[in-house]
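To whoever is covering the structure queue this week,

Two jobs came back overnight. Logging them here so there's a record in the thread.

Job A:
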Amino acid sequence: MLEKIIISIVSSVLFSLILGLITFFSMDSGDQTSLLSSFFVYLIFSLPVFIIGGALFSYFVEAYLDGKNINYIIKLILYGVGGIILGGAYLILIANNLNDAKWSSIIIVSFGAAMIYYHLLLINIKYNTISKFFSLLSK
């Protein structure tokens, strides 16, 4: 579970950086906020979702699929749908007025966030990066 939490943190940082860059470059020159401030705003809002929602969702999916030969596409769809559900639930929790919510944007961003998490999880499974990192620290 610790590995999933670490992957959640790294995913949240990467996700926030990507959204910060999109925000930074998509605004008019007079309205630009700093990249760093956009990054931190996205990080503050996305980190709890990644840690609480993403890590728990991943834990339950892996526990349910343990020992089953499920291919990449099925897991990709599971994680994508899970990301959309978590993103929608988070929006419902924080939104003042759901009529103003841009659901299509939430679906796209939530799916993208889930794909970042899932692919970092796959990289860790294949290369065992987190264990290698901690073994380097312990030397």
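Job B:
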Amino acid sequence: MAEKGAFDPMAAWSQFVTKWEQEVNDFSAKISASKEFGSTMNQASTMSRAVQQSFSEQMEKVLKAMNLPSQGQVSDLSDRLLAVEEKLDRLAIAVSDLKGDTREAAAPVRRTRQPPPATDTGETPPATGRP
């Protein structure tokens, strides 16, 4: 059995981490309390935003030169495509209502890769000409 005075590496590690964390927090508090730190962080944020905007503009020019869509253009196209699909769904429902169809207009098609069922004689029905 372990004695009371035995070295516990987990307790020592825990104490080290706690002390280190406290010292880092104290140091960070001292630095962030100064006005210089605030102005420096503001300048860094402004520079970062300017660099990001410049990079975005340059990337858009490169994509345009390569005849490729930008992320914004793809997003806009996706939104437009969704709007068209919604309109088609509404039209399909309206047409089925006009026809008096009782079944759902946009029923999903069930697709399987199973062969057609065998007939009573055990033969498979002839192919329909579709692959």
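Note for Job B: The longest helix spans residues 35-65.

Please reply-all if you pick these up so we don't duplicate work.
Q.
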